[in-house]
Amino acid sequence: MVKLCGIRISNYHNKVRLAALEKGIAFEENDQCAPSRDEAHLERSAMGKVPYLEVNGETLTESQAICEYLEEAYPEKPLYPRDPWQRAKVRELISYLELHVELVSRRLHKQAFYGGAVSDESKAQVERELTRGLKALGRLAKFAPMLAGPELTLADVCAFVHLPLVATVTRLVLGRDLVEELLPQAKPYLKALGERPAFQRVAADRKAATDARRKK
Ligand SMILES: N[C@@H](CCC(=O)N[C@@H](CS)C(=O)NCC(=O)O)C(=O)O
After folding, report:
1. Does 49 contact ligand 1 (Cβ within 6 A)?
2. Fewest CB within 10 angstroms: 49, 50, 153, 166, which?
3. 89 in the same domain as 65
4. How far apart are CA 77 and CA 54, in angstroms?
5. Ligand 1 neighbour 12 (Cβ under 6 A)
6. Which domain holds residue 109?
């Protein structure tokens, strides 16, 4: 059986977990596997990050590569449309969400979550790039009712784990919720998605893991 390793406060861990749950895959989880630069961890995950997937004694990193593997290995309940063009459009949305939105806002994490400080210059740069990324996402996203059209896809899984985090980070560090301002369709869409059982479960487990970490 495949084993997912990571921590439930991680949006990328939750992306894979949610995809696996939606697809109805039987999998094991080690949710106590934190990012680390220790040799033992680097042997499993060369960048020291989470998540990674263990399969037959080998490991696979990068959430998108993991999700693509799960999609091909467990095709019964797909998270991509059949049509090649529509599949590519789902991947395009995921790239916008991750490269032009999530990764940009991540530069604010050290101030939002780890007691560090981000310079005013960096904040202004992040704000400019995020504005561009969120507006671009708004042009591509259909919200009909899902991000790529009528069916649930991996793009919705990504939106559900990434957009609330981006909203929180911009609120904490920039004093503005850029998601709410620039992508107002996101709020009702995320609320509706959150009513699906697997989404509800991952959101509740993320909250429990976050609360447990605060108490430490
Ligand atoms: N591109 C990676 C990103 C994974 C990632 O950034 N994971 C974070 C946790 S959410 C991490 O391990 N951070 C520790 C680090 O950057 O060293 C993926 O899609 O899996």
Report:
1. yes
2. 49
3. no
4. 21
5. yes
6. 84-215
